[in-house]
Design goal:
The complex is a heterotetramer, with two copies of chain A and two copies of chain C. Chain A is α/β, with parallel strands linked by helices. Chain A has nine helices and 16 strands. In chain A, the strands form four sheets. Chain A has an eight-stranded parallel sheet, with helices on one face. Chain A has a four-stranded antiparallel sheet with strand order 5-6-14-11, with no helix packed on it. In chain A, helix 7 crosses helix 9. Chain C is α/β, with parallel strands linked by helices. The chains are: A alpha/beta, C alpha/beta. At the C-D interface, loops of C face loops of D. The complex binds flavin-adenine dinucleotide (2 copies), flavin mononucleotide (2 copies) and FE2/S2 (inorganic) cluster (2 copies). One FE2/S2 (inorganic) cluster binds next to loops of chain D.
Chain lengths: ~300, ~300, ~250, ~250
Amino acid sequence: MNLEVSIGKLRLKNPVMTASGTFGYGEEYSDFVDLNSLGAVVVKGISLTPMQGNPPPRICETPCGMLNAIGLQNVGLKKFLKEKLPYIRNFDTKLIVNILGSTVNEYVRLASALDEARVDGIELNVSCPNVKKGGIAFCADSRTLGRLVSKVRKSVNHSTLIVKLSPNVTDIKEPAKAAEEAGADAVSLINTITAMAVDLKTRKPVLKNITGGLSGPAVKPIALRMVWEVSRTVNIPVIGMGGIMNAEDALEFMLAGATAVAVGTANFINPSSTSDILEGIKIYMKENKINDISEIIGGLLIDNPDD
Amino acid sequence: MNLEVSIGKLRLKNPVMTASGTFGYGEEYSDFVDLNSLGAVVVKGISLTPMQGNPPPRICETPCGMLNAIGLQNVGLKKFLKEKLPYIRNFDTKLIVNILGSTVNEYVRLASALDEARVDGIELNVSCPNVKKGGIAFCADSRTLGRLVSKVRKSVNHSTLIVKLSPNVTDIKEPAKAAEEAGADAVSLINTITAMAVDLKTRKPVLKNITGGLSGPAVKPIALRMVWEVSRTVNIPVIGMGGIMNAEDALEFMLAGATAVAVGTANFINPSSTSDILEGIKIYMKENKINDISEIIGGLLIDNPDD
Amino acid sequence: MLHFKAEIKENIPVSKNHYLLTFTPLAKTPVPLPGQFYMIGIGNSCDPLLKRPFSILTKSDDSIRILYRIKGKGTTLMKEMKTGTVINVMGPLGNSYPIPKKKHTPLIIAGGIGIASVFYLAEKLKGKAIVLYGARGKHELLMLDELRGLVKELHISTDDGSYGKKGTIIDLLNEFHVNDKHLIYACGPKGMIRAVSEFALEKGLKGYISLEENMACGIGACMGCAVKTLKGYKRVCKEGPVFNIKDILW
Amino acid sequence: MLHFKAEIKENIPVSKNHYLLTFTPLAKTPVPLPGQFYMIGIGNSCDPLLKRPFSILTKSDDSIRILYRIKGKGTTLMKEMKTGTVINVMGPLGNSYPIPKKKHTPLIIAGGIGIASVFYLAEKLKGKAIVLYGARGKHELLMLDELRGLVKELHISTDDGSYGKKGTIIDLLNEFHVNDKHLIYACGPKGMIRAVSEFALEKGLKGYISLEENMACGIGACMGCAVKTLKGYKRVCKEGPVFNIKDILW
Ligand SMILES: Cc1cc2nc3c(=O)[nH]c(=O)nc-3n(C[C@H](O)[C@H](O)[C@H](O)COP(=O)(O)OP(=O)(O)OC[C@H]3O[C@@H](n4cnc5c(N)ncnc54)[C@H](O)[C@@H]3O)c2cc1C
Ligand SMILES: Cc1cc2nc3c(=O)[nH]c(=O)nc-3n(C[C@H](O)[C@H](O)[C@H](O)COP(=O)(O)OP(=O)(O)OC[C@H]3O[C@@H](n4cnc5c(N)ncnc54)[C@H](O)[C@@H]3O)c2cc1C
Ligand SMILES: Cc1cc2nc3c(=O)[nH]c(=O)nc-3n(C[C@H](O)[C@H](O)[C@H](O)COP(=O)(O)O)c2cc1C
Ligand SMILES: Cc1cc2nc3c(=O)[nH]c(=O)nc-3n(C[C@H](O)[C@H](O)[C@H](O)COP(=O)(O)O)c2cc1C
Ligand code: FES
Ligand code: FES
């Protein structure tokens, strides 16, 4: 049974990855998942200098979903390279680093440093709705995004360059095309959807940051639609995510056109979600006599509209 | 206890309305709800000529939500005026008619006819994602929307003019402002979010129309955020909706700035949702010694960010 | 009341994949007609969200029974519902099977869980109905003992031949000597219903079929459950679930 | 195993708003330390989605008890969980209350459901702890009989004066003659914890508090449960829930 998929020049042993920000730096889940079994580990968004993040409460539950406004608390590039990278390098999985800057220059510096450190992939987070400055400007306008990706592209020679798209747009095909044209090796989607919760008792927003990003099963139908739209539009691979809880969900994303899938919020509900999903995919393939995972990717059947 | 709210020149006896397309033409729910008790009834979207709608399956469940691609099946203007309007006129509630056209001219003709028929409110549905032509073009671009609303405005002299906004945009404040500037008396939001479901067994989209509109509790945090953004931006009243299931949800929308609320998907789960929500609001006001509902509207408390 | 609370009296397996649920309405509710259905709320959270439609199987003085097959998320949770649990129910909803005229012999054709929809009809027809009943195998033939006592004739087929005739219910139907006195009532999987309809139209027989479609409101408000008929889209929950065979556009 | 299935042995009310849940892990799990917690999965659907954190109340050979207050959606569903139900649990998680040095007298201060967090500590301290315990009224004083047998001294306050001293636990603390041998362990509502902390800092006392914050992962991965400390944001699930009083920035 062949589970291998390619994202740019990156060969993943299987299509199951983790979603940035939901899997720590890998270590946190090593008690629950054999990291060697995963297609790739995508670590928490890294910035040039450490970020302390937003004041609490930072998360809350919503119907079939959750909001987060972590504010990209992270150890910063230097500490990441020194303390976090060596740990995850011990495992036989691909490492993709999610990065966030507030200027083009910051992205370029982050990307160059990581490219030099030979991480397998760099994922540009241009879509975080939870920090006041930064990321957000890049995702709202496709031309600005294109310029950012072109610049970063020039400084990335070894790693696979992935652009992570925001769902908070009128037409997600536009930034996807812009990323492709600017030289991205792949796009990943969706990031969280900007949302809000109110506490009737205190009459305040539940999150101190007021708004946060919605993730989890609630967003799955939106994510699936966007993955479908984008995968029919661009010729680079699409990494699908948004509410994937089990193998069935993952396979639906792949049918809709995702070459690989990332598991986010599900890790919190079941810390071995990633490996359970991988096992489930294998079982499905066996039961349906599918020898190569590529038979599933983009395999959605569409009825003739006149039927 | 005062529950009255104003939407333009329209006085509603209370802020609880129904959401278009989820309450039929009122009749269907008269076994379950005393229609006289409602602030307003918003009926299913009407077009100039009858529409047959989309082929089935038209709906499906998703985590804490549902998709619909009804395709605006409706009896058309003539039959509506003749057969449906008289029934709902028997009740002591306000009648708001949701309309959909595929050209500016169609909207204008629908609005004039309904204005002449003295319906209390006309809600422009410019945001339906489930019909191939029509509505959709008007919601993606604020200038086009502004032009449409201006034109319709000129032919509406008696009814209150409400513009229903699509959440499928990068910045919902833009169409809201455009509607206000073009003379809308109020905006209502959110319509459904374009989404999709896949059936792994058949490998097909669950809906024959492929995509549909997501509604229900899943979208509540997104709707709440948008209502909050829009109500801080425009000076006309905001009618809030999206996943309101109970009085608590309704009150959260009002705290976030909604002058009235519309109940949609909840009607399907509990056909007396509207009246239960109204009762719940009254109980809340009593328990919290609130004499006037206006004390709640926009009453969200925001901490000083430096606290 | 069409929307009421009910208490679960019993919820027991009758095959590996089928359960029998008995509930007692806690309010006065209209007497159901054969072919009508109830929408049943599952669980106390928003997931699953929508109520699920199930045909009335039987009605006694104080309780209603439904027979259900474990299909997906909702029915999987449903089978865990314990005696004593209070559930939300809407119904009886939809139209019903027209009662045959004197001159007609009711010929009931049930495939799989389709038996749930026609069982109550067979009961009401007080020994007059001929029933053709097909299932995958012996273990999926449900309510057999009760059914036998209610009907004039019972013919059975199983796909695997473990009981009755080996083959599909369409095979059974093809073998059966129909005549123009037979009035068809059919419920089952889509493919079977369609085959029965084509058979009936070909032989010039009259009859009715019960259809299924995803539902949200169950009361004609959402237009979600449309099926295509000669007269345009009709709502399974309102103009149906029972349709005249000749009206459906496949 | 830190993530395991467990079977519910008992789930009974101990006051109008409080329940005691006993479960038996169906796998070998680490022995919990006082102050640690478990994340408990509720229901079989995606709503509620996240697991809920609860302190270890007591541990016997084969089972774990937690004491919980009905707060919102999750705990309301939790109280319906029946004996025999299998649940998903993660734990024991977080750090624990440091055991006091010989020279110290542990002074445990519990407000309301905060007792759940310090009860196991009191048990482990084998009769050495002095406990100040405050609740709204007599009926919300939980585990009182068991508690009495475990501690050196037990002082009680109730807001309504229905038992013990009338007033808050802070009133009780103010009356109590503290000295620098007392090492504080406090758990309860935020306002109370803060008042205890300020009291301690003012009197130059050392001690620990257990904090609560919304959690998603429970294992330090999501950064969701941060609280502000002198050393920057710390995770309640990882560096906590027990913090040194002097480290917290209010
Ligand atoms: C009028 C009517 C009467 C019915 N009577 C019976 C009966 O007596 N016994 C029985 O076992 N089944 C009956 N069904 C089918 C039953 O409603 C579905 O099997 C059930 O809804 C599946 O729910 P689920 O959550 O387990 O499946 P899922 O596939 O997880 O359900 C997902 C969604 O699709 C809907 N859905 C899935 N299958 C069907 C279907 N066949 N028809 C309508 N909606 C569907 C569900 O209601 C739900 O909204 C009837 C359907 C209709 C329309
Ligand atoms: C380390 C720790 C130990 C705890 N120990 C206990 C205990 O032993 N007994 C007990 O009754 N309670 C305890 N709590 C609080 C308990 O977790 C909450 O009361 C519970 O999560 C409320 O869930 P709900 O769905 O009923 O409330 P809702 O308000 O509906 O919950 C909504 C969301 O907010 C979260 N939430 C709400 N209140 C709290 C809170 N105080 N702390 C953390 N998250 C919260 C929920 O987990 C959920 O994600 C503890 C909390 C923490 C962090
Ligand atoms: C707590 C949390 C933290 C996240 N942090 C990041 C991040 O640092 N960078 C990023 O690109 N996405 C981040 N995300 C978004 C996820 O990677 C993912 O795109 C999103 O959650 C949708 O997937 P899911 O529904 O499976 O969680 C975060 C999500 C969550 C829930
Ligand atoms: C079945 C269905 C049909 C709908 N039809 C219409 C419509 O005709 N016109 C319209 O403006 N909105 C329509 N809507 C959108 C609702 O009015 C509402 O904006 C949306 O469902 C969000 O609210 P809810 O989550 O409470 O359902 C429809 C929604 C549903 C579920
Ligand atoms: S289910 Fe709503 S119209 Fe039939
Ligand atoms: S709950 Fe995720 S870091 Fe603490």
